[in-house]
């Protein structure tokens, strides 16, 4: 008999997949061309309407002036004939002109109100399209009709493709062609940049954090490409830091955990009070070491991940530096720890972040305490508008070729893990990150005391915008 699964069949896990596809240049071109051409045609139509309306009175006045002599001549010729012969005579006269002539009754004529008033007053009236001229024949009710003036508007001569239509078709065809070429040359680099950014984003989404967007061909995408590359660089560094932290912390945890396990085993096997007290002390120190490791790792990860926003405050520097040294002095035990501020102005004020800068100074002092034999000397000076703090010890020193590497996280040169010189290689890395946030540097040199000198330097006053 087979057992049943009360929870039901297992639900398959969904795998994250990026959308497929790419930017189609033909679609982008077609949409952009339609939008541009449609906008251009709409603007041209509106502009033509506005200009035609504004110039209507001028055009009508010109037509009246131009046709005044012709109308007077035709009217004079008609009045030399009997009115019964006007229709025959107007056809004869019409054969001499390139436009039609006709006679109509007043009530057959439909004109705008302004033109109707002119017609009734004996002036020339012009149709709305400017093609037909009307004139009242002296005091009669008959109207002389002249036009259409343009041959292409004459119904008897009308062609399917008039000259005006052919010119319009040719003009708009050339405009459409030139606009298509312009849109193509404008859109091609845009499409290439969009496709390059899409491919870069897809590669990053698939886990290839080494992918970078190429230089943009269109200036509109330069900032976007730079931002995407900076983001990729940031993500790549964060992931590398995370892997480095995970690997290093797992390695660092083994030693204190192994000592704790050993001390617990020894504690279970001994009844001697002195030995049990020693083992308890060992375990407390191991717990302190684990706590310090976690605290240092979290601090370093926060600096790498967030790059905290600085809140620079003008601070009286000498009292502040004295406070940092006095807070660390108890950790030095019998070591001689001195502070020299004689080369600083008495009332010197320095811009610093009172939350992040103590990490740098105190980590340098803790490092000196680990390696110093007898003496630690702290000095400060103001050089060319920059604050410089030197921390010297008389310990073993640092080889010149290793002085830059000591600022890398989880780097230790002594290789020992006893509690006297053991560390995690994070203090100096945190110090450099804090100084970089202040626009400064942290460096290592040889000390006049025979050991190592660590120097912090940053602008005393932040530039004001």
Automatic annotation (TrEMBL):
Could you say which EC number(s) this protein's record lists?
A: 2.7.13.3
Which InterPro entries does this chain map to? Answer: 2C_sensor_his_kinase (IPR050980), HAMP_dom (IPR003660), HATPase_C_sf (IPR036890), HATPase_dom (IPR003594), His_kinase_dom (IPR005467), HisK_dim/P_dom (IPR003661), HisK_dim/P_sf (IPR036097), Sig_transdc_His_kin-like_C (IPR004358)
Q: Which residues cross the membrane?
A: 32-55, 169-187
| One CC-aspect GO term | plasma membrane
Per UniProt, the enzyme's principal EC class comes to: transferase
Where is the protein localized?
Answer: Cell membrane
Highest taxon of the lineage: Bacteria
Assigned keywords, A-Z = ATP-binding, Cell membrane, Kinase, Membrane, Nucleotide-binding, Phosphoprotein, Transferase, Transmembrane, Transmembrane helix
Catalytic activity annotation:
ATP + protein L-histidine = ADP + protein N-phospho-L-histidine
Known Pfam families for this protein? HAMP, HATPase_c, HisKA
**Name assigned to this protein:** histidine kinase
Q: Which residues form the Histidine kinase domain?
A: 248-462
Q: Where is the HAMP domain?
A: 188-240
Could you tell me one molecular function GO term of this UniProt entry? ATP binding
- Tell me what topology the record assigns in the membrane: Multi-pass membrane protein
């Amino acid at each position: 008999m087979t057992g049943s699964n009360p929870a039901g069949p297992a639900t398959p896990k969904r795998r994250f997949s990026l959308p497929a596809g790419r930017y189609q240049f033909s679609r982008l071109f077609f949409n952009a061309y339609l939008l541009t051409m449609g906008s251009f045609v709409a603007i041209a139509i509106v502009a033509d309407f506005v200009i035609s309306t504004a110039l209507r009175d001028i055009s009508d006045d010109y037509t009246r002036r131009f046709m005044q002599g012709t109308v007077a001549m035709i009217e004079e010729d008609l009045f030399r004939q009997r009115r019964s012969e006007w229709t025959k005579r107007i056809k004869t006269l019409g054969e001499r002109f390139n436009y039609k002539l006709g006679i109509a009754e007043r009530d057959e004529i439909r004109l705008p109100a302004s033109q109707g008033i002119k017609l009734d007053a004996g002036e020339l009236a012009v149709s709305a399209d400017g093609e037909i001229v009307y004139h009242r024949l002296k005091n009669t009710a008959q109207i002389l009709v002249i036009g259409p003036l343009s041959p292409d508007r004459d119904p008897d001569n009308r062609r399917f493709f008039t000259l005006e239509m052919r010119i319009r078709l040719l003009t708009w065809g050339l405009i459409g062609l030139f606009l298509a070429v312009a849109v193509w040359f404008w859109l091609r680099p845009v499409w290439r940049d969009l496709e390059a950014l899409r491919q870069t984003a897809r590669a990053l989404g698939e886990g290839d954090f080494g992918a970078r967007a190429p230089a943009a061909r269109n200036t509109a995408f330069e900032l976007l490409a730079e931002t995407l590359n900076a983001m990729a660089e940031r993500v790549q560094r964060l992931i590398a830091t995370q892997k480095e932290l995970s690997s290093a912390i797992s390695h660092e945890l083994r030693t204190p955990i192994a000592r704790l396990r050993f001390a617990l085993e020894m504690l279970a096997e001994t009844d001697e009070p002195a030995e049990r007290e020693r083992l308890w002390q060992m375990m407390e120190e191991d717990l302190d070491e684990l706590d310090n490791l976690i605290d240092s790792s979290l601090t370093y990860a926060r600096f790498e991940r967030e790059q905290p926003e600085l809140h620079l405050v003008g601070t009286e520097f000498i009292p502040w530096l004295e406070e940092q040294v006095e807070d660390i002095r108890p950790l030095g035990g019998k070591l001689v720890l001195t502070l020299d501020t004689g080369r600083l102005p008495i009332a010197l004020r320095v811009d610093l972040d009172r939350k992040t800068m103590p990490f740098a100074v105190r980590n340098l002092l803790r490092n000196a305490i680990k390696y110093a034999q007898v003496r630690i000397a702290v000095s400060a000076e103001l050089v060319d508008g920059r604050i410089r703090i030197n921390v010297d010890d008389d310990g073993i020193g640092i080889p010149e070729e290793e002085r830059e590497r000591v600022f890398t996280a989880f780097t230790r040169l002594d290789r020992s893990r006893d509690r006297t010189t053991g560390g995690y290689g994070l203090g100096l890395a945190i110090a450099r990150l804090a100084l970089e946030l202040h626009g400064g540097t942290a460096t290592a040199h040889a000390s006049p005391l025979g050991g190592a000198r660590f120097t912090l330097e940053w602008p005393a006053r932040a530039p004001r915008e």
